[in-house]
Design a protein that fits this description.
The chain has helices at 2-17, 37-70, 88-117, 244-259; strands at 24-25, 31-32, 125-132, 135-142, 145-146, 150-151, 163-167, 171-178, 183-187, 192-196, 208-212, 218-224, 236-242. With 260 residues, it is of the alpha+beta class.
Length: 260
């Protein structure tokens, strides 16, 4: 009974901690549905990697089965099968094929990584993300006008953490900053995350990245993906994507509130 009770408690705790996990789909390789154009890049790279890995696995399994069935010692024959010291064509084959595979993987990974790292600097919406133990502060600038910052505290539900409101179909630039330890800014529906490393100068391009949101509204969970201290698991936030008209209304409300 004590073991059963402990297991039940563990399952309940795990379920409670997983309430912000997005739904995955086998058709997307178990990735969540993305909400940015950059997600298309990640999804394509992910699918290609899976296809290559499954094809390689299938070839290896076929070769193992073929060797096991047709290249084993027969009971009716006492002598050993022909022994060879080397086979140059086969050795070249299993050297060149992996080299070509790794080169192809490297090319597509380098190409897509460069695409994700591009920052044009002309995004109409810019967000300064300040990560600290153990929450977030978002300061949004829209067309040169800065809104009041949105700060949070450690929470157990992402809906209770600080919320970043962004418009759909818009380019957004993020500037990541930390003054204590390394954090990691992660929205699963972005399909990638970026470390927030202290000590990087303000104008360094290494602390910035851009996304272009898709025409998909909703509230999406975010979290720190780098173990950063005792309340790391409670370093939660949310991103809310709204149509442009609703975003304009949100901006007007925030500016009116700051003016009072």
């Amino acid at each position: 009974m004590p073991r059963a009770a402990a297991l039940a408690l563990l399952l309940a705790t795990a379920t409670a901690c997983a309430n912000d996990v997005p739904e995955a789909d086998w058709s997307r390789g178990l990735l969540p549905g993305h909400i940015t154009e950059e997600g298309n890049v990640i999804q394509s790279l992910w699918n290609g990697a899976w296809i290559a890995a499954l094809a390689t696995g299938a070839v290896v399994i076929v070769l193992i089965v073929w060797a096991s069935m047709f290249h084993r010692k027969r009971r009716a024959k006492a002598e050993l099968p022909p022994q060879v010291r080397y086979n140059l064509p086969i050795e070249m084959l299993y050297t060149l094929i992996p080299l070509v595979m790794v080169s192809v993987f490297f090319f597509f990974t380098a190409r897509d990584s460069e695409r994700l790292a591009q920052v044009t600097g002309n995004a109409p919406v810019k967000v300064k993300v300040e990560a600290y133990q153990w929450s977030w502060r978002f300061t949004t600038t829209v067309n040169g006008k800065t809104l009041p910052p949105v700060s949070g505290v450690p929470v157990s539900e992402y809906t209770k953490g600080p919320q970043l409101v962004l418009p759909t179909k818009t380019k957004v630039e993020f500037d990541l900053q930390s003054d204590d330890v390394i954090h990691s800014f992660w929205v699963p529906e972005f399909l990638f995350k970026r470390d927030v490393i202290p000590g990087i100068p303000e104008n360094d391009p290494g602390r910035k990245f851009e996304i272009t949101t898709l025409d998909r509204t909703g509230v999406f969970a975010g979290r720190c993906a780098e173990l950063c201290g005792v309340d790391h698991s409670r370093m939660l936030f949310s991103v809310k994507l709204v149509p442009q008209a609703e975003f304009d209304q949100y901006i007007a409300t925030q500016q009116a509130g700051s003016a009072q």
